[in-house]
Design a protein that fits this description.
The complex is a heterodimer of chains A (475) and B (439).
Chain A: H1 21-25, E1 26-30, E2 44-48, H2 52-64, H3 87-92, H4 109-126, E3 130-132, H5 138-155, E4 163-167, H6 173-180, E5 184-188, H7 198-204, E6 209-215, H8 227-236, E7 240-244, E8 264-266, H9 269-272, E9 287-289, E10 301-305, E11 308-312, H10 328-363, E12 377-380, H11 386-395, E13 402-403, E14 412-415, H12 423-437, H13 441-445, H14 458-463
Parallel strand pairs in A: 4-5, 4-6, 6-7, 7-8
Antiparallel strand pairs in A: 1-2, 3-9, 8-9, 10-11, 12-14, 13-14
Helix pairs in contact in A: 4-10, 5-6, 10-12, 11-12
Chain B: H1 11-21, H2 49-60, E1 67-68, H3 81-87, H4 90-93, H5 105-122, E2 126-127, H6 134-148, E3 155-159, H7 164-174, E4 180-184, E5 186-187, E6 190-191, H8 193-199, E7 204-210, H9 222-231, E8 235-239, H10 242-245, E9 258-262, E10 276-280, E11 293-297, E12 303-307, H11 314-317, H12 330-367, E13 372-373, E14 384-389, H13 393-402, E15 405-406, E16 408-411, E17 414-418, H14 427-438
Parallel strand pairs in B: 1-15, 3-4, 3-7, 7-8, 8-9
Antiparallel strand pairs in B: 2-10, 5-6, 9-10, 11-12, 13-14, 14-17, 16-17
Classes of the chains: A alpha/beta (475), B alpha/beta (439).
The complex binds pyridoxal-5'-phosphate.
Pyridoxal-5'-phosphate binds at residues 78-79, 137-139, 171, 173, 215, 219, 244, 246, 268, 283, 285 of chain A.
């Protein structure tokens, strides 16, 4: 079995963890002699005050205690943790693009041209008529899509439509976004084959249906072969169909949501288009719509008139969904990535992603109840606890899959290696899967052993929330 | 088919893999019905790395190189190089949400430290690990208010000075809920206490004010506004930012139940990309949107960091989650914590002090000129102020743009000027240009 170690540190002989900034450098200063009257100002401020060399060491050490795509395979299902090419960082750092969001359109033609180009790329890739780049993440895109659907129904005197339908395999953000937009969520059980059950869908939709949300391939990695019938059922009932773009990596260049009957979609550019996930964000969640819905897009849209780019307000716009223009630096990187790959590179991306998932699946001893899958598969840990298995995989030096979701696979391990892994690293991942799967109970429940921290008492963390160093003062 | 440069399998590996899977061609692995296949072209030409760099830099070079004196909720502060160097480390940049805390202690600790810095600045004990922006934070505050006091009022009171775009985002978030927005008048650039008193009643769900405000003024009566709100059982939400809070009395100490705003630190001007802060009281802990980093002992009894209270979140609670947010602005939060620590409390209070002095200085100089009066409001200012002009503001903006400056028109005869350490050097040139234009 292959192993490679996590970086671990010991400071003195006690905890492996580096001390907090506050413990090392906490400094309180008096706030006085400001030009403001005393009654408006605070008395003291306590913050860390490391000298810059100390600051550097602090964060370099923290970085060494962090797993990332560039430290090893990261097959976190649904998250598409692919390689983030560094040239996109250089491109995004161009000082010419670093402008205030309220600049006049005439004075930022460069930014607008880039955004327009990205709108065009994404519209083409998704088969949509137009795209807004404003939503700052996938979930924000879903919310935007829900608002567009609401505006559309209202414009057609169908404002009473109060329900959004999702399959039980939907990502948590789908129902959460619908609820945030004020919709009641109706969940339908998947069919035995792991896909949408047309009968269940027919029974669920009706005159209250505003929207049906569905990713494709779905979260089991299966292509929804009935997608056109599905769209027809929803359209018949007067609803719209939403594509959750989290799984677009599987379709790049081979199939387009807009051609399958979807009306609205978001793109997770931090997944499909390789912008780095940054420890949780930022991402961007552009939203594409078909012709009938372009008037409802958020304000403003970038448009081209002759040689000039302008900001225009769509006629029946839902208004704004971000304070300014969304996550600009992320959008630049996505645009650069697409321009680098072009048609052929995009098409190869989906091919390699699907081959990698299928190859990895072939190498592991776990059962995979649903197939044929594409860029990801959901394996079952069987009698084992999937979280325990994941913890043991950490000891093999790899990041484990997404665990215990979707729930229709018992003890699910949702695995998405992406196109960025080589055969060799897939073999290593397979070793980790099999090593953990074939481990004994004791070995699993005591894992991980070789990581910076051992298993953490989650119940205690939640029961006794300590959310800042102020809460540690008494310890 | 030409290969993606970021898919490393060599051809030999690929055929071994195809063999292992038992197909002869990768196309056989796609279970997509013929009718759903896309057989067209995107017509996107593949480019080399230098070609892409040239493509983008040629585009961005089309921007006019203007010296900006712009703000109204988005500000440019100098971000030290050390922040770029450290935050760009790929261990940070290319990781994701810390679902496996045992191998992501580094980022978790950094976010814990970010939360702590926010707790200190806001005076509130709970800060989340980021929202997208101020607007979504404000919207989440309104939704939190309605969850907590479902039975009572439904009206969110917002002063006139709040940016229209921000209100528009809020409108989207509340549209599907029984919440309404009511604006109330300002009094010389800050929240009008009389107008607020007239507007507030038991229908009020939440009162929102900003300090500094969108017009650059500092609210002088936060405590009284908070009392009004609490007298009607309404929630009190304050918009502010970490630089201002370094010297202003902490909103939490003045009765704020929620603090939202732009982090401002850590992110230079990036066409509006930033980070929304969100802090609140302990009472609302289980209603907080977004990620929270806490502490738990590990199996060896060591202190360890972890995502906590995840049962609030969408991946567990689905449609009953406190929010839909998943991917957030964590990397910007990391940068914010780095920047704040690099400044330290002395550096940060010095910066904040400058942000009071600089607008005073610029307003004073502009006020000397004929045709312009500055500041319009007889208030303390932070970073920015509104000026009144004899000539129409829009035409002044256009002329200043031709002269190489970007400022904001906020009304027919009102301009807004924002000054920080990054554009301070250009004050003399700006004043000369304004003199030319307004004369
Ligand atoms: C299937 C699916 N849908 C939606 C989302 C939400 O996207 P984001 O995290 O960008 O908000 C995710 C990812 O986290 C996802 O995996």
């Amino acid at each position: 079995m292959r192993h490679y170690d996590q970086a671990t540190f010991s400071e003195d002989d006690s905890p492996v963890y580096e001390r907090l900034l506050s413990e090392k450098f906490g400094t309180e200063v008096a706030v006085e002699d400001t030009p403001l009257p005393d009654e408006l100002t605070r008395d003291t401020l306590e913050l860390p005050a490391p000298a810059e060399p100390e600051l550097s060491r602090h964060y370099v050490r923290l970085s060494q205690q962090n797993y990332a795509v560039e430290t090893g395979p990261y097959p976190l299902g649904s998250c598409t943790m692919k390689y983030n090419p560094p040239f996109t960082e250089d491109v995004a750092a161009d000082p010419s693009g670093m402008v205030h969001p309220d600049r006049s359109a005439e004075s930022v033609q460069g930014n607008l041209e880039l955004l327009y180009q990205l709108q065009e790329y994404l519209a083409e890739i998704g088969g949509m008529a137009d795209v807004t780049l404003q939503p700052p993440a996938g979930a924000a895109g879903e919310f935007t899509g829900n608002r567009i659907a609401a505006a559309y129904h209202e414009a057609h005197d169908e404002g009473h439509r109060s329900e959004v339908v999702v399959p039980d395999t939907a990502h948590g953000t789908n129902p959460a976004s619908a609820a945030m937009a004020g919709y009641d969520v109706v969940e339908i059980p998947s069919g035995e084959d792991g896909r949408v059950d047309l009968e269940a869908l027919e029974a669920a939709v009706g005159e209250d249906t505003a929207l049906f949300m569905l990713t494709n391939p779905n979260t089991l990695g299966l292509f929804e072969r009935d997608i056109e019938e599905i769209a027809e059922v929803v359209h018949e009932a007067g609803g719209l169909v939403y594509y959750d773009g989290a799984n677009l990596n599987a379709l790049l260049g081979r199939a387009r949501p807009g051609d399958m009957g979807y009306d609205i979609m978001h793109y997770n550019v931090h997944k499909t288009f390789a912008t780095p996930h940054g420890g949780g964000g930022p991402g961007a969640g552009p939203v594409g719509v078909v012709d009938e819905l372009t008037d409802f897009l958020p304000n403003p849209q970038v448009d081209k008139q002759g040689e000039d780019f302008e900001l225009v307000e769509p006629e029946q716009t839902i208004g704004k969904v971000h304070d300014f223009k969304g996550n600009w630096l992320v959008l630049i990187k996505a645009m650069a990535y697409i321009a680098r790959l072009g048609d052929s590179g995009l098409c190869d991306t989906s091919a390699s992603a699907v081959l990698n998932a299928n190859y990895l699946a072939e190498q592991i001893d776990l059962e995979i109840p649903f197939d044929p899958f594409h860029h990801e598969f959901v394996a079952s840990a069987g009698d084992l606890d999937a979280s325990n298995m994941a913890k043991r995989m950490l000891d093999f030096g790899v990041h484990p899959p997404t665990t215990k979701w979707p729930e229709i696979v018992s003890q699910a391990l949702m695995t998405e290696p992406t196109e960025a892994e080589s055969k060799q690293s897939l073999d290593q991942l397979a070793d980790a899967f099999n090593g953990a799967f074939n481990a004994g109970d004791e070995e699993l429940s005591s894992a991980p052993h070789r990581t910076t921290a051992r298993r953490i008492d989650q119940a205690d963390a939640a029961r006794n929330p300590r959310l800042s160093w102020h809460a540690l003062d008494d310890e | 088919m030409s290969r993606s440069p970021f898919a490393p399998n060599a051809e030999a590996d690929e055929s071994a893999m195809l063999d292992a899977v038992g197909v002869s061609d990768v196309e056989e692995l796609f279970d997509i019905p013929e009718k759903d296949r896309f057989d067209g072209e995107f017509d996107i030409e593949a480019r080399s790395e230098p070609e892409v760099k040239a493509l983008v830099s040629d585009m961005l070079a089309e921007n006019d190189d203007l010296t900006e004196f712009m703000g109204r909720g988005y500000y440019d502060h100098y971000v030290p190089s050390v922040v770029d160097r450290l935050s760009m480390r790929s261990e940070f940049l290319t990781s994701y949400t810390q679902y496996q805390p045992e191998v992501t202690q580094g980022f978790l600790q950094a976010l814990f430290e970010y939360q702590s810095i926010l707790v200190e600045l806001t005076g509130l004990p709970v800060a989340n690990a980021s929202m997208y922006d101020t607007a979504s934070g404000l919207a989440e505050a309104a939704l939190l208010a309605s969850r907590i006091r479902q039975a009572d009022g439904t009206v969110v009171l917002i002063p006139d000075y709040v940016r229209g775009d921000r209100v528009s985002v809020l409108e989207n978030y509340i549209a599907g809920h029984d919440i309404q927005i009511e604006r109330f008048a300002t009094d010389d650039g800050t929240a009008g206490l009389d107008a607020l008193e007239a507007a507030i009643d038991d229908e009020t769900l939440m009162v929102y004010v900003e300090s500094p405000t969108t017009r650059g003024t500092i609210e002088e009566h936060l405590e009284a506004i908070g009392d009004f709100a609490h007298d009607h059982d309404a929630m009190f939400t304050v918009g502010s930012d970490p630089v201002a809070m370094a010297i202003l009395e902490a909103p939490g100490d003045l009765g704020a139940d929620v603090v939202v705003g732009e982090a401002v630190l850590g992110m230079p001007n990036a066409y509006g990309m930033g980070l929304g802060i969100f802090a609140t009281r302990d009472d609302y802990l289980r209603h907080v949107p977004g990620r929270l980093i806490g502490i738990g002992d590990d199996q060896d009894g060591n202190r360890a960091f972890t995502l906590t209270l995840q049962t609030r979140e969408q991946h567990i609670r689905r449609e009953r989650a406190t929010s839909n947010i998943c991917t957030n602005q964590a990397w910007v939060a990391l940068r914010m914590a780095m920047h704040a620590s690099q400044l330290g409390p002395d550096g940060l209070t010095d910066l904040a002090t400058e942000m009071v002095e600089l607008p005073r200085q610029l307003a004073g100089e502009l006020d000397e000129l004929p045709g312009i009066e500055a500041p319009v409001h007889d208030r303390h200012h932070f970073r920015e102020f509104v000026a009144r002009t004899d000539e129409p503001a829009e035409s002044i903006v256009d002329e200043l743009e031709s002269a190489g400056f970007a400022v904001q028109a906020v009304d027919e005869h009102e301009l807004q000027f924002t000054v920080t350490e990054t554009n301070q050097h250009a004050i003399p040139d700006l004043v000369a240009a304004v003199e030319e234009v307004v004369a």
